[in-house]
Every structure is written in C-alpha cells, then in structure tokens.
Amino acid sequence: MILAGGAGTRLWPLSREAAPKPFMPLPDGETLLAKTAQRALALDGVDSLFTITNREYYFHAKDTYGALQPACRSVYLLEPFGRNTAPAVALGALFAQAQGFGDHVLLVLPADHLIRDQDAFADAVARAGALATKGLLVTFGINPTHPETGFGYIECGALLERAEGNLPSAYRALRFAEKPALATARDYLTSGHYVWNSGMFAFTPDAIVDAFARHAPGVLAAVRPIAQALAPDATMLEVDASLFAAVPDISLDYAIMERAAEAGEVAVVRGAFDWSDVGSWQAIAALADADGDGNRGSGERVAIATRETYVHAADRVVATVGVENLVIVDTPDAVLVAHRDHVQRVKEVVGELKARGHESYRLHRTVSRPWGTYTNLEEAPGFKIKRIEVRPGAALSLQLHHHRSEHWVVVRGIARVTNGEREFDVRPNESTYIPVETKHRLENRQREPLVIIEVQCGDYLGEDDIVRFDDRYGRAAAEQK
C-alpha cells in the first residue's frame, strides 16, 4: 500500500498543493513516487499494489505506474480530501480483506521517502513480514546518525529477533516519542535504544483491523461503510465524500501504534538501509554533488565568490555573487531565496500565499491534466493566453464557459474540434473561435502530441468557469455529486 499525498509546503516552489512532493522530479529526473513503486515492485511476492491518493493526483500516479509497467494488479483508492494516515490504512486494510488478502502481509509505504539500498530494504521487509505473520504490528526504525529534532523516535525494548545473516534485528517497541528538543535528541542518540520513526509499516489486514477495533473503534466504524461501498472488481475506486467527511482526521501512530505499543503488540525492525524523508531543501541539496566551495544544484548556474549554496535553475541561468549558505529555487512563476538555517520556514510562505488567495501556492505555471498539460503564458484583465498540449488519443471534456470566449490556433498536430453543432479538423496555422456559452471539445486523434495556443477573452477567466457535459476521465460525474 503506497500512501501518496501531501500539501507540498516545505519544498515550495517546486512542490505545490496540486503536485506535491511525491510527484516532484528529483535532481535525477525521477519522482519519489516512481522510486517508491519501483522499490515495492522489486520485492518478492508482491501480488497487488494499492495506492491511496487524492482524486486530483490519480492521473499523476497512473502515468507514473504506466511507465513502470507493473506486472501485478494495481488498484487506486481515491480520497476526495485528506484525512491523515489512520483512515487511509483502515480503508486499505478493509478493502484487502474483502479481496481475500486478510492473512497476507500488507506493506505500507509513504510515497515520499528515498531509500537507495534496495537489498537492505528487502532484507528488512523480509524480517518484518515474518513477524507480521505472527500477528504483530511491525514498524521500521532507522538508526539515527545525528540528533535530529525533525523526526519522531521509537524506543526499542526487548530483543525479538537477533540479526542473522543479512536480516536485521527486531525489538519490542516500548513507546513512540514526539519530535524532541535538541538535548533530548542527543540523549536518544547516546542511549542507542532509540530509532527514527520512518512511518513505514507491515502487518496483516486482519491484524490491523483487529487493532482498530480495540484501539480506535471510532475510526473503523466511520471507514467501514466507505469500504463496503467500494466495487470489488474495479481498479479505480472513488471514496464517497459525504461519508469520508465523518471520518476522524488522525495519524496511524496516534490512533493505533502508540496504544498498541503500550499493549506490547508492536515490533520495530532496525533497518540497516539508508533513508531520507526528503523533507526540506537541505535534504534535496544533499542529493546533488558539491563543488570545491560546497555549492550544489541543478540547471544552468554561475557561482562567483559563492559558498555552501544550493541553486535550482529551472529554465534560465541563475548567477550568484558574494553569497553563502543560501537556498535559491527558481521556477517559471516563483523564486525562493532562503538562508539554509531557515528552510523549515518555507511552509510559512505557502501559508501567506494561501491567505492572499495567490494561485502559486497550489499550481505551477504548467499544470498537468489527465489529457496533457496547459501553461499560462500571460494574463491581464480581460484576457489570458495559454499553451495547451494534448496527448495522442486524449481529449478535453465536452464543456462550455459562461464568462469567456476562446480562440484556438493550432501550431502542431491536427485538432479534432467540436464547436457547437459542428465537428471538424483544425490543422497547423489554422484557427477556430469558441463563443461564450457554446459547447466545445478539443481532441487529439493523431499519434503525435497536439499543441495549440489558446486566447481567452472575458470578464472572468478563472478555471472554475467550466460546465462539463461529458468527460472520459470521470470529472463530469464527480462534479455532479
């Protein structure tokens, strides 16, 4: 089970609410979701892949998995909004039970972690799986390398399984500790009995459902009717929003693991693999090689008298002169400049943008859609100009707008256009005009991408000025609920 969500606050402006950290390309070009799925699919005995994510991220995840071509069955459980990890895990476990997997081992992985040592990870999973088949709830602890105050900790108790060959040791989990103060983190590191809480788990669906019944019956009671309403044979399962609104917003640690640890029901495997939650720009910077002055980054950069500075240059040259200890992230519509010691406060920028109603907290200039992408090129009162790219075989919904007209100019490919009662092709250097209140659709029936320039004119140009009548991606039905 892969949990893919998040608000995209700490890695803004590269991560946004509509495309959070799991979907953000790393310096090597891959996303964390892709790396997580590859890591899971490389394990022995994986027969199903459950991905729990927001409905808005479904096509991001589907495209990611499509490139990986997993051989096992892939199922998407789509939440209408976030309710934290406890409801997600309870829902996934109930669905797995209904599929006949109640006594199988369910491995729960957040989609935004980076682990490079696949062999050590597989060994830890093997150890955890053996414990999970005995009815234990298993979590994975990471041996701390420094007194980190940004992670939760787990205190290890009695030895359950001694390290043997490549298999790591496992202990009884005594308690889960919150993110500590620095002095406490140093004590944890010195004692040797504490590990970082990775947020990864292994248990059988039967065991975790039973734990919910004992430790968090309210969560289970709220989630059970949602699970019962899911179609057993579907691969894309939408969670009912009205039912989900009644589900408590609580993490699995708070709802289950802390209480289960007190009852002696939790084991912790001390993973010997490398691990990062890639939770800040400092962590991203650590993924890139440093030059002789400690500078790191990606894209075209010029560094003069610059030290210990990270620069992400998206589509233009970024030059630094006479600075040090900075993080600079340049994207087409936003630039972040922060001191390295204050990168955890980037989420405050997102909060301020959200309070102002500024779209850059939520969207990039280029926005992904199920059918392709659109890029906002320019906007001013009364008009907006977009570049729209439609994938081969894809189509926008049949729709109309109340407040704007649209002019479409084809620059590459052949557009099949529905404009009112007419349907016709528009070729490169040709155009069509869509009046206000006119049903229309843009479709690419060719094998190459279709690119058009769209000019919108009207007194309101918001993305919510849209009425969908038919949509192959299910968005028209979702709007009518």
Name its key features.
12 helices; 5-stranded mixed β-barrel; Spore Coat Polysaccharide Biosynthesis Protein SpsA, Chain A; Jelly Rolls; single chain; 481 residues; 6-stranded antiparallel sheet
Present the secondary structure layout.
Blueprint: E1 2-4, H1 32-41, E2 48-54, H2 58-68, E3 73-79, H3 85-98, E4 106-110, H4 118-132, E5 137-142, E6 153-161, E7 170-177, H5 182-191, E8 194-203, H6 205-215, H7 217-228, E9 236-238, H8 241-244, H9 252-262, E10 266-271, H10 281-285, E11 296-298, E12 301-304, E13 310-313, E14 318-321, E15 326-330, E16 335-339, H11 346-356, E17 366-369, E18 372-380, E19 383-390, E20 398-400, E21 404-412, E22 415-419, E23 422-426, E24 431-434, E25 440-443, E26 450-458, E27 467-470, H12 475-480
Parallel strand pairs: 1-2, 1-4, 2-3, 3-9, 5-10, 11-13, 12-14, 13-15
Antiparallel strand pairs: 4-8, 5-8, 6-7, 6-8, 7-10, 15-16, 17-18, 18-19, 19-26, 20-27, 21-24, 21-26, 22-23, 22-25
Could you please describe the fold and organization of this structure?
The chain has 12 helices and 27 strands. The chain is of the alpha/beta class. The chain folds into 3 domains: 270 residues, Alpha-Beta Complex (Spore Coat Polysaccharide Biosynthesis Protein SpsA, Chain A), CATH 3.90.550.10; 66 residues, no CATH class; 115 residues, Jelly Rolls (Sandwich). A 6-stranded antiparallel beta sheet has the order 17-18-19-26-21-24, with no helix packed on it. It has a 5-stranded mixed β-barrel with strand order 5-8-6-7-10, surrounded by 4 helices. It has a 4-stranded mixed beta sheet with strand order 11-13-15-16. Strand 1, helix 1 and strand 2 form a beta-alpha-beta unit. Helix 3 crosses helix 6 and helix 6 crosses helix 7.
